[in-house]
């Protein structure tokens, strides 16, 4: 996502991509799953390194792979709303936007026992109307700091790592994708990045935990 003009910068300001924390902590996030092949691999990497993450799941994918989503929840990861069908919310009416979020919301609540508090708009496409819809439903809209990593287009593991490492600092929210395509490069990049961050002293926490840390002055 380019950020060259003022309009695009205003759009990005509607999404939280960094959180002001003092501790060495970042939030890894994964979009478009759960996927039966790649999501368990990522969960295994996190498990072996003592990390937690936020998975922004698509309702349709959740219906197909509910067992994987349940495993993520049971292992302490956070599940966020990435809409029911991965529709671009800015192209929809107010009623359609609500339907996209509410459908995925119901599935997530049935699986976890509570409503999600975070959503990430597909394609990170957001405008004032979409932001208001999310806020009215009690959601916080989440972006990411490492947009140039572009793991979704399979640019190579080295590219993903380079453009993620450059954005690592306390409070960064980092985006990756675990579904809707070949995510082998993402898995490889995460397998390098996660132990690297842990060796540097970083805690790998959920987005909600990162927000709590900021509220607590940590």
UniProtKB/TrEMBL annotation:
InterPro entries per record: Glyco_hydro/deAcase_b/a-brl, NODB_dom, Polysacc_deacetylase_ArnD
Record-annotated NodB homology domain positions: 24-205
GO molecular function, one term: hydrolase activity, acting on carbon-nitrogen (but not peptide) bonds
SUPFAM superfamilies per record: Glycoside hydrolase/deacetylase
Any one GO BP annotation for this protein: carbohydrate metabolic process
Protein origin, superkingdom: Bacteria
Protein name: Polysaccharide deacetylase family protein
Organism: Paenibacillus spiritus
Origin organism lineage: Bacteria, Bacillati, Bacillota, Bacilli, Bacillales
């Amino acid at each position: 996502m380019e950020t060259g003009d003022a309009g695009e910068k205003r759009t990005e300001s509607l999404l939280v991509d960094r959180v002001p924390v003092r501790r060495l902590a970042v939030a890894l996030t994964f979009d478009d799953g759960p996927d039966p092949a790649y999501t368990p691999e990522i969960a295994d990497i996190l498990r072996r390194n003592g990390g937690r993450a936020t998975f922004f799941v698509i309702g349709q994918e959740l219906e197909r792979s509910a067992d994987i989503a349940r495993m993520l929840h049971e292992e302490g990861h956070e599940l966020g709303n990435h809409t029911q069908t991965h529709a671009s919310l800015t192209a929809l009416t107010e009623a359609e936007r609500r339907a996209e979020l509410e459908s995925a919301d119901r599935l997530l609540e049935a699986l976890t026992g509570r409503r999600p508090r975070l959503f990430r708009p597909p394609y990170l496409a957001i405008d004032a109307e979409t932001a208001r819809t999310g806020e009215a439903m009690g959601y916080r809209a989440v972006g990411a700091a490492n947009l140039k990593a572009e793991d979704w287009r399979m640019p190579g593991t080295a590219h993903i790592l380079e453009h993620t490492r450059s954005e690592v600092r306390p409070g960064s929210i980092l985006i990756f994708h675990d579904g809707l395509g070949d995510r082998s490069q993402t898995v490889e990049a995460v397998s390098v990045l996660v132990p690297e961050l842990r060796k540097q002293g970083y805690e790998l926490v959920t987005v909600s935990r990162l927000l709590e840390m900021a509220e607590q002055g940590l």
